[in-house]
Amino acid sequence: MGMTELRRNTNHMQGHLQDRRANRDQAMQLSQGDFKFICQFVYNNTGIVLNDSKREMLYRRLTRIIRERNLNTFSEYCQLLRDQGEQEKDYFINSITTNLTSFFRENHHFEYLTNEELPALMKNKAAGASGKKVLRIWSSASSTGEEPYSIAITILEALKNELARWDVKILATDIDSNVLAKGKVGIYDLNRIEEIPKKLKQNYFFQGRGQNSESVKVHDKLKNMITFKQLNLLHEWPMQGPFDAIFCRNVIIYFDKKTQQELFSRYYEMLAPGGLLFLGHSENLGNYQQYFSSVGRTIFRKP
Ligand SMILES: C[S@@+](CC[C@H](N)C(=O)[O-])C[C@H]1O[C@@H](n2cnc3c(N)ncnc32)[C@H](O)[C@@H]1O
Q1: Which atom of ligand 1 is closest in space to residue 105's alpha carbon?
Q2: How far is C-alpha 115 from the geometric centre of its chain's CA atoms?
Q3: Is 93 within 8 Å of 41 (Cβ atoms)?
Q4: 61 has catalytic annotation
Q5: Is 97 close to ligand 1, i.e. is its CB under 6 Å away?
Q6: Exposed/middle/buried for 242, CB within 10 Å: 0-12, 13-18, 19+?
Q7: Over pLDDT 90: what percentage of the chain?
Q8: Which of 48, 175, 231 to probe ligand 1 with, by most ligand atoms within 8 A of CB?
Q9: Which candidate in 174, 176, 244, 249 is catalytic?
Q10: Residue 1 has what DSSP assignment?
Q11: % helix / strand / coil in the chain, to the nearest 5?
């Protein structure tokens, strides 16, 4: 077979495959009933509210899931969720969550820790029973780990020579088991740390060599400070607290007002007196504002 013919055949086959896929996707109508069922399933299991404005996003993510599961229609997938919801839940939720994050995202929060909170704690915190000063921070929707690692870097940079006198632990939780696994491994594309100062890159990240030169790995001194655990914020929280600071950023935006208020009251209980709650840029405490004092942009202190 000559090259031209081979190319023609290959093109023909690719075209055929694309047609079949397009036909299948076209045939896949997301009925109002299936849409409602899926929204309810997501809401019940995650608290995430999906409405008509999320229909396109849901359609795209579901189409991918259905291909991966070798099914043909949304109805078939709804049936799978009805029959085997427990087994399918983790995989489904992992595919539905939005995990966007970055190192030092909303940097004013880390600046507040560096310039205000950590110096004040270093001055005022008394040593605990172990003889060390105890610092506990919770990154409550940690996604792939950039948030807790940024917190760890900020703390190490602030405590410097005092570190030996401190017992610091950061708890990083998320509902999505895939993002937690990535956080635990602590390997990121090099371009994810492009924006952070050179000194921090040198102090806290190893760049890969050869084939891995486009990746970085976080130092063990950061990893050792962080425990990654799966936790659905809507479920019971097994930890005791209290926390000196809780990061609850860019997650409550996906919940309805009632769920948000319930969470704020639980965060309040988990915070030490004087502890800080950090929210995402487009989030606010609503009616719960009266129980906290506002100390900076989307930073709230429990009295
Ligand atoms: C947009 S990311 C925010 C990451 C990080 N906090 C930040 O601001 O960069 C939202 C995270 O919330 C998690 N999430 C959504 N619903 C959750 C729930 N019910 N419980 C715990 N985590 C949840 C998602 O898996 C996702 O990783």
Answers
A1: 9
A2: 25
A3: no
A4: yes
A5: yes
A6: middle
A7: 89
A8: 175
A9: 174
A10: -
A11: 55, 15, 25
Sign of CA dihedral 139, 142, 148, 150: negative
- The phi, psi pair for 286, rounded to 5°, reads 55, -135
For the segment 240-261, the average pLDDT, to the nearest whole number, is 97
How high is the pLDDT of residue 2?
62
pLDDT tens digits, residue range 70-127?
A: 999 999 999 999 999 889 999 999 999 999 999 999 999 999 999 999 999 999 999 9
The two tokens of residue 139 are 């990154």
Q: Give the CA distances from residue 69 to residues 62, 76, 97, 179, in Å, rounded to whole numbers and listed in that order.
A: 10, 10, 18, 21
* Helix (DSSP H) and strand (DSSP E) numbers for the chain: 11, 10
Question: Locate tokens 């310039």: which residue?
Answer: 115
| SS3 category, 194 | coil
Pocket test for ligand 1, best of 101, 251, 262 (most atoms within 8 A of CB): 251
List, in order of start, the domains of the chain with CATH numbers.
3-96 (1.10.155.10), 108-301 (3.40.50.150)
Helical (H) or strand (E) element with 42: helix 32-46
3-state secondary structure of 50: coil
CA atoms within a 13 Å half-sphere pointing along the CA-CB vector of 119: 6
Concerning whether 25 is annotated as a catalytic residue, the answer is no
User: Which value, to the nearest 10 degrees, does the dihedral of the CA atoms of residues 8, 10, 16, 18 take?
Assistant: -120
